[in-house]
Design goal:
Elements: E1 15-18, H1 26-32, E2 37-41, H2 44-48, H3 53-62, E3 65-69, H4 78-90, E4 95-100, H5 102-114, E5 141-145, E6 157-162, E7 167-172, E8 180-183, H6 193-212, H7 218-240, H8 245-261, H9 268-280, H10 284-299, H11 304-313, H12 321-338, H13 355-364, H14 377-388
Helix pairs in contact: 1-3, 4-5, 6-7, 6-8, 6-10, 7-8, 9-10, 9-13, 10-12, 10-14, 11-12, 13-14
Bound molecules: fe (ii) ion (FE2).
């Protein structure tokens, strides 16, 4: 008999619709889920880009009445979640449709929590075991991403800044998973090149770190490698020509696959990236893009074969596994440069004397606990130093 400590959970539960123009299928999906009164959660940028028109039209045609909650910032606040939840209640809504980037989709997920569970949201903080207090059912939700990177549409968590502590708080529960994700390349084609590049590098980093992380998850591993391959094939094209819907679609797949895969775990790169965003406001995908090559070199001594496999998916050609693993970081640097992203922390306003404080914060971040090579605080400091200047 196997000890339960040896058991692992492999789970891929989300229904996903993929295709150009698929966003209009939200009306069919809403009806299938029993929705007749939809709260559309988006933001003013999504509205200004004209991305809500076809969705509203499809809902109107299907007789699904709707109202919009658009007051959501890029680092969402508890007050924004609570305000959208009040709109849900006042409208007597029965389904949430989230349309936006990772932040908007996170808010959309949390609206369903706030409308069914008593505030404050802080009591559901994953860091204090808050997921145990989340019980179903939550209202149904459809997620329509307008960026290709976070994969929030297939993720089980939402991040919100809690007012009382001014701290970004992760709320986690499988119940937060959207019921349907609709991946429609047309919804991402207005994304500007730098945003396409940074979110795409986040997707790539999710795939790389999931594949490298500790744990036995062959399905996540295969999906992660597929996501690396798609990112290599399509990110540069999507950045150069935003109207290329095939490349846009492939990056949507890569973003989703990265988030499916990282249920296995992430690694040191995300621990390094998180403080760069909270302390310096750096875009999360850019922070990952700058840090990932150094982390690959750091991990090479522990998982050379896996890093060689990633290099293969990134287009490096060699019959020698050592050569492949050695050249993996260079392949990531080449992609980062090809999509026009900066390559060093100093250009982002970070100085040598900032690094010890950042390393302490990175060490406190839990992501590196599943990194394949153990990381001390000094290791993380050395990794930041390796990213300070271009190499
Ligand atoms: Fe990420």
């Amino acid at each position: 008999m196997t000890d339960t400590q040896d058991l692992v959970l492999w789970s891929f539960p989300t229904r996903v619709l993929f295709g150009e123009g698929a966003a209009t299928q939200c009306s069919v999906e809403a009806l299938r889920l029993g929705g007749r009164r939809a709260l559309l959660v988006a933001d003013e940028g999504i509205e200004a880009a004209g991305l809500l028109g076809s969705i509203r039209g499809a809902l109107d045609a299907a007789g699904v009445v709707h109202q919009s909650a658009l007051d959501i910032s890029s680092n969402p606040l508890e007050s924004e979640v609570l305000s959208a939840a009040r709109a849900y209640d006042t409208f007597n809504a029965d389904i949430v449709i989230g349309v936006g980037g990772g932040s908007v989709l996170d808010v959309a997920k949390l609206v369903r929590l706030a409308t069914t569970h008593p505030a404050p949201l802080a009591q559901y903080d994953d860091a204090i075991g808050g997921s145990k207090s989340i019980s179903g059912p939550l209202p149904p939700m459809i997620a329509i991403p307008t960026t290709a990177g976070t994969g929030s549409e297939v993720g089980r968590s939402g991040v919100v800044t809690i007012q009382a502590t001014n701290r970004k708080t992760v709320i986690f529960s499988p119940l937060l998973l959207p019921d349907v994700a609709i991946l429609d390349a047309e919804m991402t084609q207005t994304m500007p090149p730098m945003m396409t590049a940074a979110t795409g590098m986040d997707a790539l980093t999710h795939c790389v770190e999931a594949y490298c992380s500790e744990g036995d998850h062959p399905m996540a591993d295969a999906i992660a490698l597929g996501g690396v391959r798609l990112s290599h094939r399509s990110l540069e094209i999507a950045v150069e020509n935003g109207a290329n819907l095939k490349a846009r679609g492939e990056m949507l797949k890569a973003g989703m696959m990265g988030a499916v895969a990282f249920q296995k775990g992430l690694g040191a790169c995300h621990s390094l990236a998180h403080p760069l965003s909270t302390e310096f406001g750096m875009h999360h995908g850019l922070a990952n893009a700058i840090c990932l090559p150094a982390v690959l070199d750091f991990n090479r001594s522990t998982i050379s074969d896996r890093i060689a496999e990633i290099a293969r998916q990134l287009g490096v050609r060699s019959d020698d596994a050592n050569t492949l693993s050695f050249e993996c970081a260079g392949a990531v640097r080449a992609l980062r440069s090809a999509v026009g992203l900066p390559s060093d922390l100093r250009s982002q306003g970070i100085e040598e004397n900032d690094l010890p404080r950042l390393a302490a914060l990175a060490f406190a971040d839990p992501c590196h606990q599943l990194n394949p090579r153990r990381c001390s605080q000094d290791d993380l400091l050395a990794l930041y130093r390796a990213c300070l200047d271009d190499v």
